[in-house]
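Q&A log
Question type: sequence-to-structure
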Amino acid sequence: MGIPAISLSTNLTVSTNITATSAPTTPHKHRLHNSTLKSLSKSGKLDEALLLIESLPSKYPATAPDAEACALFLHSCISRKALEHGQRLYLQLLLYRARSNQDLLSNPRLKSKLITLFSVCGRVDEARRVFEDGGEDVDLPESVWVAMGIGYSRNGYPIEALFLYYEMVSRFGLLDNFAFSMALKACSDLGDLRTGRAVHAQVLKATEDPDQVVNNALVRLYSWGCVWVFGL
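Response status: OK
Response body:
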């Protein structure tokens, strides 16, 4: 089953004034920059971390921050809802890919973090753009699909979340608790008890036991079911 289309119009305006001189790149300097970036990100110094990220192409054209450092930066962005910082990192990642063979956007953890940041900031179209980056032939892991589904659900798109869940079942078979909780929330939001029962059946077939989040989602689903069926 296909995934419903969504507008992908995204306007990123980046204003930076950075002057730097070129210097040869060495593995030691590369590690040093990534270590500094991780330290700044962990301490929440996002402005300084972003300045370092954006200065790398001019100082060291062949150097990009590694995926782990970028993921830590995005984690801090998510906790602070620092949308502009995340958008500017995304732009840098696109530039790195265009200038070299370094495609950090293919990293599942980094892609999931970007999707989550845009979702928590209400930018579903940008989250979808990151999700679809690379085309339909990209073999995305379940975690990236779940991040997109949660983004839909969080922003009031339960139908899109369920369509994504159906596609995940088709691709991956039995899913994990993150996927189940996302789908069950969508069913509750829609008052769709029939589909919710089908998801519950998948929960019972899963190899891992349902966690507290899934159990709470089931309670909410069947509570809503009583309201819809009996008019309570």
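Response note: DSSP finds eleven helices and no strands in the chain.
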